[in-house]
Design goal:
heterodimer; B: 285 residues; mainly alpha
């Protein structure tokens, strides 16, 4: 069983490689056609034209585009994405430092989204046929209309500014040290045994994760509800009723299991979108993850850094989608036998 | 198709949504007549004034002023214009590209379908927020650039959903009959296939308008949307965020506007989807 799953994941990942190559080539081309000269930008403004030309030659910008791409791709495969022009550090190292922060935020948000989504979905379904059904449905559409960045601002305003109960800038209180072992702050502070850092990190994570989780739960909610409706038309639900099972047993023991498959597929797709949704939430809460770095890079037109971060986002989203696909096959026995 | 149209106009959901959308559209169309002040006019003697009903409010600035003493109500009204222009143009643009490719892919099938399918796959493996940011680096700021970026990012939504619809419609007998009558492929697509996909198309446009409003707000919020001389809700939020302790209203009002606009289009899309009774392959996000 484990061997088949591993094989399946490996196959899916291999299939994602051509897509990744095309994506990286597209990314490279789009950014090369910009009216921006990275050579001139990496030199002081008073550099002579000869100096700029020399820099262009050194950076390989005078070579044909496909050759430039291959050089960049070769470097990228070794983790070398070039140097950030604005920050004057290795782009790869900058991404490696910020990626765990973003992953931690995305995972926390996804857990919250799943909890709210499943809870809300079951509640919506439970309200079927009652007076509240239309109202609840209406509310769920209104909730669907609040994107993550509005949630971010609302929560910041309510819990940070008005009630002043939760911190809303950075990932930890500024006077506390940040341990560096794995890059995942919650894990690291736990490993070095700093309870104060851990508590502060959790407090700083709550609002951003909540903002993202709330934004992505209504979609899960609505799909769970509609798949529960579908499942309830099946014969085995009637069968379970005839066997004398309580409605609660039917819902949680039979219907929920079967309805969770389409929900899981959507949740997987959502996780991919949620991962890129971290960008705005990070900007709003000054959370030092990859999204904040990306917005800075975009504002500075820092091409090597934009390329590195853009590609990283694509790779992570592709991996998430691949894993979700595989998980779907694992959980759905019908798909296992080909 | 007068029947489903009449049915959707009787749905309370559609009516509420249409009413809201109409209010915003009127603000957008008649911004010049409705706005009490010039949205760019600075009044440095009355900066960060609270709304007129609050303590210290000035009746000539009904919803207060921002950090440069500009009238918030007027800026909200002009912001509606920006949001509506983007929502309308971007969703129509994305629809045109997406619908044409979807009809070609679904109708002809085979290699064409495969190529368009892979193109959509590659495109969709870019997270939308990241792709639009990267495009804005290349295109530069401005209203037209925002529209172009949204079109370039979001045509895939139309293409994917519509293609499966076209695939189903093309198998119907009346399409084959049209071909037997001597219609060319293009005549068949335009006269027989396209009208059948129209209900789905309208629903998708409505949902896309909601997305476009959000994307425009996001881009303006991070300073990569419309230019500095144009008014946008996202820009107002970014500005008000720095003065949130002094003037919370400045932050809340544009947020409310974004929510109302997005909710109107989402409700409209949802109501149309129910009443026009089409299979929507995906949820609206």
């Amino acid at each position: 069983m484990i061997a088949t799953v591993a094989k399946l994941i490996a196959c899916r990942l291999l299939a994602a490689i051509p897509i990744l190559l095309v994506v990286s080539a597209l990314l490279f081309c789009v950014l090369r056609f910009l009216p921006i000269d990275p050579a001139a930008m990496s030199l002081p403004p008073n550099a002579t034209i000869e100096e700029v030309e020399a820099q262009r030659h050194q950076m390989g910008l005078d070579r044909p585009l496909p050759e430039q791409y291959l050089i960049w791709l070769k470097g990228a495969l070794h983790g070398d994405f070039g140097r950030s022009i604005a920050l004057r550090r290795e782009a790869g190292a900058l991404v490696a430092n910020t990626l765990p922060v973003t992953i931690q935020l995305a995972v926390a948000a996804m857990v919250l989204a799943a909890i709210f989504g499943v809870g809300g979905g079951l509640l919506l379904f439970h309200l079927r046929g009652t007076l509240f059904e239309t109202a609840a449905d209406f509310v769920s559409i209104l909730l669907l209309s609040i994107p993550e960045f509005l949630w971010g601002l609302i929560l910041l305003f309510v819990f940070g500014v008005t009630l002043r109960v939760l911190p809303f800038t950075g990932e930890v209180a500024p006077n506390l040290p940040i341990p560096h072992i794995t890059g995942f702050l919650l894990l690291d502070s736990f490993l070095v045994g700093r309870v104060d850092v851990f508590a502060s990190a959790v407090a700083h994570l709550i609002l951003p994760a909540l903002a993202l989780g709330l934004a992505f739960s209504p979609a899960i909610m609505r799909v769970l509800r509609s798949s529960l409706f579908d499942v309830y038309h099946e014969d085995y639900i009637q069968q379970a009723r005839l066997r004398g099972l309580s409605e609660r047993q039917i819902l949680l023991g039979h219907a929920f299991k079967n309805a969770s498959l389409p929900t899981l597929t959507l949740a997987g797709v959502q996780f991919g979108i949620l991962f890129s949704g971290t960008l705005l939430v990070e900007v709003i809460y000054s959370y030092p993850g990859m999204g904040n770095l990306m917005v800075d890079a975009v504002r500075n037109a820092d091409l090597p850094l934009i390329q590195a971060i853009g590609l990283t986002y694509c790779v992570v989203v592709l991996i998430i989608n691949t894993l979700v696909d595989s998980l779907y096959v694992v959980l759905n026995p019908k798909l296992r036998v080909r | 198709m007068p029947d489903p149209l009449a049915r959707s106009l009787r749905s309370p959901r559609v009516l509420i949504a249409l009413g809201l959308a109409l209010c915003i559209a009127i603000c957008a169309l008649f911004a010049g007549a409705l706005a009490p002040h010039n949205p760019a006019e600075q009044n440095l003697l009355a900066i960060l004034a609270p709304p007129a009903w609050a303590h210290g409010g000035d009746p000539s600035f009904l919803l207060g002023t921002d950090s440069l003493g500009r009238d918030v109500l007027s800026r909200l009204i002009y912001g509606a214009r920006t949001a509506m222009i983007v929502a309308f143009c971007a969703s129509i643009g994305a629809m045109i590209i997406g619908a044409i490719l979807a009809h070609i892919a679904g109708y002809f099938g085979g290699a064409v379908d495969w190529i368009i399918g892979r193109l959509v796959d590659v495109w969709m493996s870019f997270p939308p927020v990241i792709l639009s940011l990267i495009l804005m680096v290349g295109l530069g700021v401005g209203l037209d650039r925002v529209i172009l970026a949204i079109v370039l990012v979001d045509w895939t939504r139309f293409c994917r959903v519509l293609r499966s619809e076209v695939l189903i419609v093309t198998r119907h007998d009346y399409v084959a009959a049209a071909r037997l009558l001597g219609f060319t492929h293009w005549q068949t697509i335009i006269r027989e296939v396209f009208p059948a996909t129209l209900p789905l198309l309208i629903t998708l446009i409505s949902l896309e308008m909601a997305i476009a409003v959000v994307v425009e707000a996001i881009l303006s919020f991070v300073g990569l949307g419309v230019g500095a001389n144009e008014v946008a809700w996202g820009q107002m939020i970014a500005d008000a965020r720095q003065y949130v302790y002094q003037s919370p209203w400045n932050l809340l009002l544009p947020m409310l506007c974004i929510f109302l606009a997005v909710a109107a289009f989402n409700l409209l899309g949802d109501g149309l989807r129910r009443t026009l009774d089409v299979r929507l392959a995906e949820t609206g996000r």
